[in-house]
Inverse folding.
C-alpha cells in the first residue's frame, strides 16, 4: 500500500469515521463483558460546537475509546436537550422575522413551529461531534422531548406530587422579563454593577417633617405600601403610628416598626415594596401590608405606574429621577456598587415577582445525595475541591421552582376542573385526570372537555435530571435489560458551572428512583478561556470557529492541543498555537512511520545496538504504561497524554529510530524491523484514544487488516514488569552520547569525522552500551583508562570522566584560552558560595533547604574546577 508523503487529515477523517460507523464499532448491547457507560451532557438542541463542547467531548471520547480497547462493553449515549428558554427565544425571533407574533398563535400552532425548528437545526451539533471523532452509540441518540422522555417526566412529576413533595405556592420568584418566565435560583447569575443610590424624602402626613430613604430602584416607590423603622431607633420613635406620603403618586402609607431594619445601614428608614423584594414580602406578610405590583410581565410599568405606564423600567428610572429632582424629593445620589441578578440564558436583569408556581421540596430529597458524595466513596469528584462547592449548595438548598411560563417543553400534568384554588388534579394522562377529578369533585358528570391543563411547562433541568435513567428507559421500565446493565454509569464529564443545575440533581433523582448513584465518578473540566483569561463566548467574539480549527489542524491536532494544557478543574487558556503543536505531533508520527517503511528489509543478523535499543524501549514502554494507567486512575487525562507524547516524540522518534537506523543506503535486518513495527503498533494503541484518525490510518497502512482487526477494537497493551536497571543504564548512556555531541557542536567537529573516546570509569558502568554510544556519536573506538588523557577535550558525568583526543580541527590555543576563562569564572563563583557558607549568621538563620542548595552549588563548582584543571593540564 502506497504511503502518501504528507499526512492530510481532511482526506483521512471522513473515510475512517464512515468505516467505524459502517462496521458498528460504537454500538453497544448488553452482554457478558464488564460495562463502561457514559451519558453525554446533552447540548442544547439549538446549539453549535464551541470550544467548551470540544474539550468536554474530547475527554469523553478518550475515556470511551480506552475502555473499548480494554475489552469493556463501551456505551456512550449521545443526545440533545430541548432547552426551553433558549429554543423558544429562537423560535419567537424567527416568527418575528416572518411578521408573526407568538401571542397570535395557539399553543399547538407555536409547537409546530418549534418542532420545525428542532428538525431543521436539532442534529447540527451531533453531526459536528462526529467531525471531532466522537465515538458515540448513535443508534441510542436521545432527545429530552422524545415521547418516552416526556412520559418519564410526567410519571416522576405525578409521583413526587403524590408523595407531597411537589406543591403549588404563591411565592416571590426570579422573573426573566425577556423570556417571560420564572427561573430557579441557580439560573440567576449575580454580577457586581455600578449604579446609584438615590436618597428620597417622604413627607410625614399632617406635619412639615420629612424622612429620607435610600434606594437603588427609585421607580419602585410607586409600589411602596409602608415605611419601616427599627423600634429601638431613638431617632424615629416619634414617628410610631404615623403615616407617610409616597412622592409622585401621593399614596398615604403606614410607618411600621420591625427589628429587621438595620439601624446602622443607610438612613435607618426602609421603604417596603412587598411585590418587588423578597425581604419586603416577608415584612408585608408579617404586618398585613397591601401588595402593589407595578410591572407588566415584560418589566414595563402597568397602570400603577401612572403616567409612566407602558414604559420600560430602566427608561422610567431615568425619567423618575428627573421628576423627583424637579419636585424637590431627590435629596442626593451616590455612586453605589451592588449585586444585580441576571438571567443565565437571556442576560436580562431579573425582577423579583410574586407569582403562583410549582415547587419541589428539596430538604429530604438531598440527604442521600449529600451522603453519597461527602460521607462515603460512592461518588468521586475529580478534582476533589468541588466537593466543598457541592456541600455548600446542598446544605443550603431551597425548594426548586420547577414551572416555566413557556410552551416549548413538557407541559405540567396538572388539570383544572373548577374555579377554586384546589380544584385541580395531577395525573399522567388526561383520561386518568378525568377519573381523579370526578372522584375529587364528586361530580360523575365531568367531561374530558371540562379539564384544562396547566399551560406552564416544567423546567428543562427537571427532564435532564433524569437523563442517566431515561436514556435507558429506566423510569417507565425500571427493570429493563439496558438500565439493569448500564446503570449506574461509569463516568460523567462536565463543567463545574452546572454542578447545581445538573450534577447534584441527577444524584438526587438517582437515589430517589433507583436507590442508587447515577455514576461512579465525576470529572470536572475547566472552562475554556482566551489568552486574556476571558471566558469564551459569542458576545465577546473571542471563541474560534471549532470546525475551522479542525479544518486547519485536523481533528487529532485540535484534540491534542486542547488536552495538553487542560488539567482537571483548571481553566484552559486557549491559544491556537496549541493546535499547531498537536498538528506537528501528528506530522512527527507520520514522518517516523514513513521513515520506517522506507527502509529496505533483508535477512541479516541483528546488530547488537538494535537488540539493546529494542530491549530498552520495551522497558521504557512498560514504565510509561504504568505511569499512564496511574494518570487515568486519577483522571489526569492531560498528564496521561503528555506521558505518551514524551514516549513517542523523545524515546521512540529521537532515540529508538536513531539506534536501529541502518547505515546510508543499507537495508535493515528483518528481526529488528518486525520488532520495531510491533513496538510502533503499541504506540498507536496508546495514542488511539487521543488521536483516533491518524492512528487508524497508520494502523491500516502497516498491514492489510480485516474489520475485526481495526485499531478501534484492538486490545490495550498489557502491563508487564519494568526493567528499571536497563532504563537507568540507557539514561547514563544517553548522557554520554549528549556529552560527545555537545563537544562536537562546540568545536565544530562534523559527524562524518570519526572520533575516539576514552573513559575514566569511576562509576564502574557497564560497557554493554558502548556499541550504541559508538553508533550515535560516530566514535570509532572506546578505551577504558586509569588516568586522565592529556591533550584531549573532556566532560564529566557523575564521577566518570570522558576524553576525546583532539585533532588538527581544533584550535589548541583558543581552546586553552576558553578553558582558562571558564576556570577563572568558576573559581570566582566558588569563592562567593564559600563566603556565604562561612557566614555564621546566614547558616544559622537560613532554611535547611536553602543551605542544601548552596552546598550543592559548592560541590558542583569544585567538581567542575577539577575537570577544567585536568583538561587544561592535558592541553598544556
Amino acid at each position: 500500500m502506497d504511503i502518501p508523503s504528507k499526512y492530510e487529515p481532511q482526506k483521512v477523517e471522513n473515510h475512517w469515521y464512515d468505516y467505524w460507523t459502517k462496521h458498528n464499532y460504537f454500538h453497544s448491547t448488553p452482554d457478558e463483558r464488564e460495562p463502561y457507560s457514559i451519558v453525554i451532557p446533552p447540548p442544547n438542541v439549538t446549539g453549535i460546537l464551541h470550544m467548551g463542547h470540544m474539550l468536554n467531548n474530547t475527554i469523553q471520547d478518550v475515556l470511551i475509546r480506552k475502555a473499548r480497547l480494554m475489552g469493556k462493553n463501551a456505551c456512550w449515549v449521545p443526545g440533545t436537550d430541548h432547552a426551553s428558554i433558549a429554543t423558544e427565544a429562537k423560535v419567537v425571533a424567527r416568527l418575528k422575522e416572518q411578521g408573526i407574533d407568538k401571542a397570535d398563535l395557539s399553543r399547538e400552532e407555536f409547537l409546530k413551529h418549534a418542532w420545525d425548528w428542532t428538525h431543521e437545526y436539532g442534529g447540527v451539533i451531533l453531526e459536528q461531534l462526529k467531525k471531532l471523532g466522537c465515538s458515540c452509540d448513535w443508534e441510542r441518540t436521545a432527545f429530552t422531548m422524545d415521547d418516552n422522555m416526556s412520559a418519564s417526566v410526567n410519571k416522576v412529576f405525578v409521583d413526587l406530587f403524590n408523595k407531597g413533595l411537589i406543591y403549588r405556592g404563591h411565592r416571590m420568584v426570579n422573573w426573566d422579563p425577556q423570556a417571560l418566565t420564572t427561573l430557579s435560583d441557580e439560573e440567576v447569575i449575580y454580577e457586581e454593577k455600578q449604579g446609584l443610590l438615590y436618597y428620597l424624602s417622604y413627607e410625614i402626613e399632617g406635619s412639615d417633617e420629612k424622612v429620607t430613604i435610600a434606594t437603588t430602584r427609585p421607580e419602585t416607590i410607586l409600589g411602596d405600601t409602608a415605611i419601616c423603622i427599627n423600634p429601638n431607633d431613638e431617632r424615629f420613635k416619634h414617628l410610631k403610628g404615623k403615616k407617610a406620603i409616597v412622592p409622585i403618586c401621593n399614596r398615604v402609607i403606614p410607618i411600621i416598626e420591625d427589628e429587621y431594619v438595620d439601624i446602622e445601614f443607610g438612613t435607618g428608614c426602609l421603604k417596603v415594596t412587598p411585590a418587588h423584594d423578597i425581604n419586603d414580602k416577608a415584612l408585608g406578610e408579617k404586618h398585613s401590608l397591601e401588595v402593589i405590583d407595578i410591572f407588566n410581565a415584560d418589566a414595563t410599568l402597568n397602570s400603577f405606574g401612572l403616567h409612566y405606564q407602558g414604559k420600560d423600567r430602566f427608561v422610567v428610572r431615568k425619567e423618575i429621577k428627573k421628576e423627583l429632582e424637579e419636585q424637590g424629593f431627590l435629596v442626593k445620589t451616590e455612586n453605589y456598587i451592588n449585586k444585580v441578578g441576571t438571567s443565565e440564558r437571556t442576560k436580562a436583569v431579573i425582577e423579583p415577582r410574586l407569582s403562583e408556581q410549582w415547587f419541589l421540596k428539596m430538604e429530604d430529597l438531598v440527604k442521600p445525595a449529600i451522603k453519597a458524595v461527602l460521607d462515603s466513596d460512592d461518588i468521586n469528584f475529580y478534582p476533589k475541591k468541588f466537593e466543598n462547592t457541592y456541600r455548600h449548595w446542598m446544605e443550603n438548598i431551597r425548594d426548586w421552582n420547577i414551572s416555566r411560563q413557556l410552551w416549548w417543553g413538557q407541559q405540567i400534568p396538572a388539570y383544572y376542573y373548577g374555579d377554586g384554588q384546589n380544584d385541580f388534579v395531577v395525573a399522567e394522562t388526561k383520561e386518568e385526570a378525568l377519573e381523579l377529578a370526578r372522584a375529587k369533585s364528586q361530580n360523575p358528570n365531568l367531561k374530558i372537555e371540562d379539564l384544562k391543563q396547566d399551560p406552564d411547562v416544567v423546567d428543562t433541568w427537571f427532564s435532564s435530571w433524569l437523563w442517566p435513567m431515561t436514556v435507558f428507559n429506566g423510569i417507565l421500565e425500571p427493570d429493563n435489560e439496558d438500565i439493569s446493565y448500564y446503570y449506574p454509569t461509569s463516568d460523567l464529564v462536565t463543567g463545574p458551572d452546572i454542578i447545581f443545575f445538573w450534577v447534584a440533581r441527577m444524584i438526587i433523582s438517582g437515589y430517589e428512583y433507583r436507590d442508587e448513584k447515577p455514576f461512579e465518578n465525576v470529572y470536572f473540566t475547566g472552562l475554556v478561556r482566551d489568552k486574556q483569561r476571558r471566558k469564551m463566548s459569542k458576545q465577546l467574539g473571542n471563541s474560534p470557529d471549532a470546525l475551522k480549527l479542525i479544518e486547519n489542524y485536523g481533528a487529532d491536532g485540535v484534540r491534542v492541543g486542547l488536552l495538553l494544557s487542560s488539567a482537571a478543574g483548571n481553566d484552559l487558556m486557549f491559544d491556537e498555537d496549541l493546535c499547531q503543536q498537536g498538528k506537528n505531533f501528528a506530522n512527527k508520527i507520520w514522518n517516523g512511520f514513513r521513515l520506517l517503511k522506507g527502509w529496505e528489509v533483508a535477512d541479516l543478523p541483528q546488530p547488537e545496538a538494535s537488540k539493546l535499543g529494542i530491549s530498552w524501549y520495551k522497558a521504557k514502554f512498560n514504565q510509561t504504561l504504568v505511569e499512564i494507567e496511574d494518570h487515568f486512575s486519577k483522571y489526569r487525562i492531560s498528564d496521561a497524554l503528555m506521558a505518551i507524547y514524551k514516549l513517542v516524540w523523545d524515546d521512540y522518534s529521537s532515540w529508538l529510530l536513531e539506534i536501529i537506523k541502518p547505515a546510508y543506503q543499507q537495508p535493515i535486518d528483518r528481526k529488528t524491523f518486525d520488532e520495531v513495527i510491533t513496538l510502533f503498533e503499541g504506540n498507536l494503541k496508546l495514542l488511539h484514544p487521543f488521536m483516533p484518525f491518524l492512528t487508524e490510518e497508520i494502523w491500516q497502512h502497516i498491514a492489510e487488516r480485516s474489520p475485526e482487526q481495526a485499531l478501534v477494537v484492538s486490545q490495550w497493551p498489557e502491563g508487564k514488569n519494568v526493567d528499571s536497571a536497563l532504563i537507568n543504564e540507557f539514561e547514563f548512556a544517553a548522557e554520554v552520547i549528549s556529552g560527545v555531541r555537545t563537544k562536537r557542536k562546540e568545536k565544530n567537529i562534523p559527524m562524518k569525522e570519526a572520533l575516539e573516546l576514552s573513559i575514566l570509569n569511576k562509576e564502574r558502568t557497564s560497557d554493554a552500551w558502548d556499541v550504541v554510544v559508538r553508533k550515535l556519536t560516530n566514535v570509532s573506538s572506546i578505551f577504558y583508562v586509569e588516568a586522565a588523557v592529556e591533550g584531549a577535550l573532556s566532560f564529566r558525568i557523575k564521577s566518570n570522566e570522558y576524553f576525546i583526543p583532539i585533532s588538527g580541527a581544533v584550535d589548541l590555543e583558543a581552546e586553552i584560552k576558553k578553558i582558562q576563562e571558564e576556570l577563572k569564572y568558576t573559581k570566582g563563583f566558588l569563592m562567593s558560595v564559600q563566603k556565604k557558607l562561612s557566614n555564621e549568621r546566614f547558616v544559622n538563620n537560613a532554611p535547611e533547604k536553602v543551605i542544601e542548595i548552596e552546598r550543592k552549588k559548592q560541590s558542583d563548582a569544585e567538581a567542575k574546577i577539577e575537570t577544567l584543571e585536568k583538561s587544561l593540564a592535558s592541553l598544556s
Residues 256 and 658 are 89 Å apart (CA to CA). The mean pLDDT is 91.
